[in-house]
Amino acid sequence: MMAEETGRLDRGDGVELAWASLPGRGPTVVFLGGFRSDMEGTKALALRDICAARGQAFLRLDYSGHGISGGVFEQGCIGTWAADAALVIEQRAPGPLVLVGSSMGGWIALLLARQWGARVRALVGIAAAPDFTSRLMEPALTEANRAALARDGFFHEPNPYGDPVPITAKLLEDGRAQSVFGQPLPFAGPVRLLQGMRDAEVPWQTATDLAAHIGAEDVRILLVKDGDHRLSRPQDLLLLEETLTGLLGVQDGGQPLPEAGIAPA
Known about the structure:
GO terms for molecular function: hydrolase activity. Its EC number is 3.1.1.93, 3.1.2.22. It comes from Pseudoroseomonas ludipueritiae. The protein is α/β, with parallel strands linked by helices. It has helices at about 40-55, 80-90, 105-115, 130-135, 145-150, 170-175, 205-215, 235-250; strands at about 5-10, 15-20, 25-30, 55-60, 95-100, 120-125, 155, 165-170, 190-195, 220-225. The strands form two sheets. An eight-stranded mixed β-sheet has the order 1-2-4-3-5-6-9-10, with helices on both faces. A two-stranded antiparallel ribbon has the order 7-8. Helix 2 crosses helix 3 (about 105-115). The N and C termini lie far apart (about 45 Å).
């Protein structure tokens, strides 16, 4: 089993982005974490171990302001973090990809699939949350939140997993600019959407909305009736493993994942 390599990449402005990669056969599986999450989470490490056992190339990373990367969280936004991910992937995994995005990482995976087309062979979303700023955050803003945004440029959102999270006007404005649902998403490769029906953060109907919106025909939604937002219990991780190996299994028979790319008009 090959050892995982770790490092840091200067994105050009002094902010260093942390990454960890596992050599192996392609396509490289890339894990994209969620909002305020990091690459040391349960799902990221489980995927690393799954890929290590298969001899599959794997990459995980921390966006700026997340985990052990440099930068300030409050200065980031969806576009910034998508660019961070793209930079690390270009440097560490320049070939074909299978993108696995958790929550906000699902949004970022969709943006990268739109950008890279055929280079992305398949997508896996885990409680994928495209457009969560406009679909979930903005409708829930209180008058006090709006006043704080106008006055200070941010407010603090209660967080069930830890300290309150600063929500900035920049994040909300950029979220509208990075909308997935606001324009066509003509990705044509296989898509798998894992979604808990007891997800308190992302309504499970988001998965059905995304399945209807995306251009691909090979789209499957795997609903976990008692699953929460994290989907990190042993049975959830087993489902993730089965889903990923199902996508990659064609390689075991000698056939690579076909080029996915952009659906024809």
